[in-house]
């Protein structure tokens, strides 16, 4: 998100690993043929794929602590820092909005339709949009309040969201519930966003919806608290790692206990999910920090550091490329049209692998292909900052 003044190689590595995993799971060759760990949980529960987005938001929080701590200590720079954070957040939102509307506008132009119709049905929220919103709010909280207050804010967010979702009767339903289409978050999304502007795969709820953005901010605040701890100069490295492992394990255990009453659920971004995913992220960074920054084993890090230093760039390009290439339509003998990227997959992958392995190999190829571009940028010291 920003260039930390005190940079951790392990943080870049962990961010890069997370983004590479995000590209992998978002780009299978065929959505109907995916290995179970590379799919999201149907509703309640958590697969490895469900950990990727909260890991990234958690890492954003750690990065905020490293990048903005000097500004936090100097009240004269607070306004300037917050304005920069707001600008960056707005840019992230607009990048996500562009990805959502790009294909709709091009289709409208090619079909001689109305561009205005694209705006009438575009999804307003999404992954980059959520990152932008969470980044703005979390940055302002970090700059304006003490670290102790940040911790209290995290606790309040988790408790308030739990109370709203489990005790407030849903209008039109009459009782609180956590089902896909009848929970409070879904009702708010339909009421404010309307079904025309929610996730196209559901139309009745949005996994990056309005109310669930609240606990997503909690995930980022969790990361901020870890970043504050990692920056401390009065604590030695073994103690940092030990406390980070301890905190991570404690959060995972609390998340699993809370799961018994408020299920771990990515789409709802439940409070138990915040603790569970944040705890695992803490354990992951502790391990990376100990191996890479403390013990000095760095040779293996380059491929993921390459991804980590241009994380938003590669995520945006990975979302844009299939939209662009599939605009190129190839006409079959029977008159049907197929997008260029789809035709390439059907020609070069499906004849040589089983359906599920073809889908996986395609996703791996996608990750490796972007690695070539990112490695070139890395060697040329090209870092595109939002």
Keywords:
386 residues, mainly alpha, two-stranded antiparallel sheet, 14 helices, 65% helix, globular, disordered N terminus
- Helical content, roughly? 55-70%
Cα(first) to Cα(last) distance is 7 Å
Number of separate domains? 2
Q: Please give the radius of gyration in angstroms.
A: 21 Å
Largest sheet: 2 strands, antiparallel
Shape type: globular
- The share of residues in extended strands comes to under 5%
What class would the helix/strand composition place it in?
mainly alpha
User: Uncertain segments of ≥5 residues (pLDDT<50)?
Assistant: 1-5
Structural overview:
This protein has 386 residues and is mostly helical. The protein has two domains: 1-39 and 299-385, no CATH class; 44-296, no CATH class. The protein has 14 helices and two strands; from the N terminus they run ααααααααααααββαα. Strands 1-2 form a two-stranded antiparallel ribbon. β1 and β2 (337-339) form a beta hairpin.
């Amino acid at each position: 998100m920003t260039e930390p003044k005190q940079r951790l190689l392990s943080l870049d590595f962990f961010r890069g690993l997370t983004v590479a995993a995000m590209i992998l799971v978002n780009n299978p060759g065929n959505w109907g043929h995916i290995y179970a760990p590379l799919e999201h949980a149907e509703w309640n529960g958590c697969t490895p794929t469900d950990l990727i987005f909260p890991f990234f938001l958690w890492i954003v929080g750690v990065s905020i602590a490293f990048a903005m701590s000097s500004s936090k200590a100097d009240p004269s720079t607070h306004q300037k820092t917050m304005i920069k954070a707001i600008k960056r957040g707005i840019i992230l939102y607009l990048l996500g909005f562009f990805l959502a509307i790009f294909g709709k506008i091009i289709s409208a132009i090619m079909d001689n339709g109305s561009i205005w119709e694209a705006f009438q049905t575009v999804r307003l929220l999404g992954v980059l949009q959520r990152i932008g919103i969470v980044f703005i709010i979390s940055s302002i909280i970090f700059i304006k309040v003490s670290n102790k207050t940040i911790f209290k804010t995290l606790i309040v967010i988790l408790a308030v969201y739990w109370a709203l979702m489990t005790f407030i009767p849903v209008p039109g339903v009459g009782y609180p519930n956590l089902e896909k289409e009848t929970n409070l978050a879904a009702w708010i999304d339909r009421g404010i966003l309307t079904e025309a502007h929610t996730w196209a795969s559901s139309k009745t709820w949005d996994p990056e919806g309005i109310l669930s953005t609240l606990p997503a901010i909690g995930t980022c605040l969790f990361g901020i608290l870890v970043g504050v701890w990692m920056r401390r100069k009065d604590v030695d490295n073994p103690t940092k790692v030990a406390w980070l492992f301890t905190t991570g394990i404690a959060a995972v255990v609390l998340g699993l206990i809370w799961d018994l009453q408020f299920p771990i659920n990515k789409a709802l971004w439940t409070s138990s999910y915040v603790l569970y995913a944040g705890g695992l992220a803490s354990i992951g960074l502790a391990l990376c920090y100990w191996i890479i920054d403390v013990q000095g084993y760095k040779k293996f890090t380059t491929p993921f550091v390459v991804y980590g230093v241009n994380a938003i760039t590669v995520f945006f390009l990975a979302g844009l490329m299939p939209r662009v290439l599939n605009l190129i339509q190839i006409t079959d003998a029977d008159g049907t049209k197929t997008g260029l990227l789809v035709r390439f997959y059907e020609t070069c992958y499906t004849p040589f692998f089983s359906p599920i392995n073809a889908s996986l190999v395609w996703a791996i190829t996608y990750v490796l292909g972007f690695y070539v571009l990112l490695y070139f940028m890395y060697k040329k010291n090209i870092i595109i900052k939002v």
